Amino acid sequence: MLEEIGARHHLLRSQHEILEDRVRFLADASALLAKSLDEDELLRQLATLAVPVLGGACLLDVVHHGTHKREIGAADLTGDRLAALEDALSALSPTDTGSFFEKMMASPRPILLSPIPDWFHDALVAGHPRRREIQQQLELESVMMVPLLARDHMFGMMSFGTFAGQPRLDDRDVEIATELAARAAVAIQNAQLFAAVRQELSERLRVERERDTTETFLHAFFESPATYSCVFDIDEANNDWIFVMPNGPYARSYGYTVAEMTGKTARQIGIADDRVRYFLDILRRCRASGESVSVEVSPSKTVDRIWRLGNIAPFTLNGRSLFAYVATDITERKALEQQVIQAQKMEAVAVLAGGIAHDFNNLITVISGCAELALEDTGADDPVHEVVLEIKEAADRAGALTRQLLTFSRRQPVRPQLVDVKIVRQADRMLRRLIGERHDLRLVLSPSTPVVYMDPGQLEQLLVNLVVNARDAMPDGGSIVVSTTIATRNASHCEAGRPGPAASRGECVEISVLDSGIGMDEEIKARIFEPFFTTKDVGKGTGLGLATVFTIVKSSQGRVRVDSSPGMGTTFTVFLPQAMPSHVTEQEIVEPAPMCTGGETILLVEDDSHVRRLAKRALADLGYNVVEASSATEALQVAGALDGPLDLLVTDVVLPEFDGHDLADILDVRRPGLKVLFMSGYTADALAHHRRIANKNSFLEKPFNATRLATAVRGTLESSDGWRK
After folding, report:
1. Under CATH, what is the fold of the domain 415-590?
2. DSSP 136-199
3. What are the pLDDT digits (tens) for 44-98?
4. How far is CA 478 from the centre of its chain?
């Protein structure tokens, strides 16, 4: 009897201790769950807490808004056994159709499998034969699954398992697991609610920040100095439009503040009627179509002349039909467009000039050549001699002009050479004709003979541009003084180390052009050398005159200075490096050689009869035997009929039937070793697209005189190189 009582007492004591342990476990669980509102952290703590009190492994599955979360707690499992457990538990995924999770949702109550029946093993390994081997490794003894409920809605499941060597789970474990699941469900729901509230607060804060950012952005955009914006309305009663809300730049562009312009109509701020009607028509068309309209305008009453490109879009605010206008300043772009148009005009003129120059060079060749022959036939005391000399000088200047035209149209490289600044005196007559009788031109030239190293045509162009600019500064007439002198060279005048013959460190040629015109202020002076900048009216002036001067001076390693003030006239002073004779090679200062004579046979091919006759006479006078042809076909016939030797072919590059190169090719086959001299009204650089002008010593540029022709012929005949294909 005592033994039975003692056994019952021991059993009761054991049950009491177990009960205390479980109460303590639930109290610890409650305290632990109350410490965190992070759902992921809660799941990790629950999975860890339940082991080993409720078995050797715990699996938590939670589904919230379609998202599945899982945590595994396994105290005694490591390595392969833990990996095997994770693989086996994949069969319990709540997202799989027919899973235990899905079955429990149909009837959410605890399930205890102790011992585990065969059908459970079969369900775990269904479709996965390898899982049977895994289960054998795990030696799973019992399984318990408890739902996580919130308002009778299952949102998760806690699964527990024991393995070989561990007590199997029983009904008492189900009771404590059910209590733990109830407390865990509350804690998880609180964590999810906290996360939702936190997300909502974060979203509100984000929206507020975006709203603040948008307001800041809109304010910055609305008041941007580069943006002209305004809200318009139509005043139907007065056939006008109203400035409802202009921004600062828009109001200031009309000379008003925002407060002064707001609420006023277009006519009230002085906009002309025609522009009011024009813009009002745009607003009405915009309202009728309901679509935005792009407009490009130049306001008639602005502080500074500006161009705007903007969009007008209709919108409705509190039942009021309004228009939003946003525009940007395109003044600079419009200026560039005008420059491009002007450049295109000049390019068209350049192409035309290039074509004219080719034919003009033929005429100049004839004029200059005939004048040269006439000078030989008249003495210095002959009254006609001076007239013929004027013709010769005019032809030479015309030749220089055509070279400039070809340089401009074909971008031909300049040909710097020694130039005596006395060229200013030689240009006196031309300059006087340019400025007209209402202007007085006076030359004050240095008594010395300053020499510069540059293209003579560019020096003449520099003088012409400066004198013409001075003339335009005095529309009612005035005085122009052109002076030359030798100045002290310093860093503000000329650069050292330039190519070509250099001046000594202290010598610089100074060319000044002074006028008594209207002068310039500092703002205009700062821009006068900009390409296309001009103060003249539209259609008068290209804006390239002074820009060309600056380019020429810069390419010659010089400087240009401007002294001017309003009403006090203007002085342009150009400083150029002086080239001293001691720095020039003997070849550069050698006098022209006497006319070269000869007795060879020359075939002259030129389609211009005047040039052909002049060249034939010049060569025949020098003793050459000249046969002529006006075309390539005729040249082949003449060469075929020629019994004796043919020493030289002198041919124009461009011929009516086929060009001089093809002619030279054919004759080279028939007469090997034939020398060839090409000639053309185009320059060798302009003919770069033609074949074989690499050897410029075998090229004679028109216009030419008898001396240049004789020198070129003799040089080609005596050259060691024949015609090369």
Report:
1. Heat Shock Protein 90 (3.30.565)
2. HHHTEEEEEEEEEEETTEEEEEEEEEEETTSPPP-HHHHHHHHHHHHHHHHHHHHHHHHHHHHH
3. 888 777 787 788 888 888 888 778 888 887 766 666 666 666 665 555 555 554 5
4. 47
Q: Contact 508/561 with Cβ under 8 angstroms?
A: no
Domains 12-195 and 227-329 share a fold: yes
Residue with tokens 């639930």: 26
Q: Using CA atoms, how far apart are residues 463 and 263, in angstroms rounded to an integer?
A: 58
Q: From the options 2.60.120.260, 3.40.50.2020, 3.40.50.300, 3.30.450.20, give the CATH code of 227-329.
A: 3.30.450.20
Greatest C-alpha distance within the chain: 175
Q: Could you tell me which residues are beta bridge partners of residue 675?
A: 648
pTM for this entry: 0.44
pLDDT < 50 stretches in the chain: 1-2, 5-13, 97, 300-303, 410-411, 491, 495-504, 583-593, 694, 725
Instruction: Give the separation between CA 330 and CA 251, rounded to whole angstroms.
Output: 17
Structure tokens at 348: 């068209």
**How much is the CA Rg of the chain, to the nearest whole Å?**
51
CB 290 within 8 A of CB 314: yes
Q: How far is CA 189 from CA 25, 30, 52, 147, 194, in A?
A: 21, 14, 25, 14, 8
Beta bridge partners of 11: none
ω into residue 52 within 30 of 0, thus cis?
yes
As a whole number of angstroms, the distance between CA 706 and CA 712 comes to 10
Q: Which two tokens stand for residue 276?
A: 């009011």
* CA–CA gap between residue 37 and residue 32 (Å, rounded): 11
Per cent of the chain over pLDDT 90 is 11
CA distance 698 to 177: 111
C-alpha 235/C-alpha 576 separation (Å) is 66
**Matching residue, tokens 């609610």:** 193
158 φ, ψ (degrees, to nearest 5): -110, 125
CATH of domain 12-195: 3.30.450.40
Using DSSP's 3-state secondary structure scheme, residue 586 falls into helix
The CATH fold assigned to 593-718 is Rossmann fold (3.40.50)
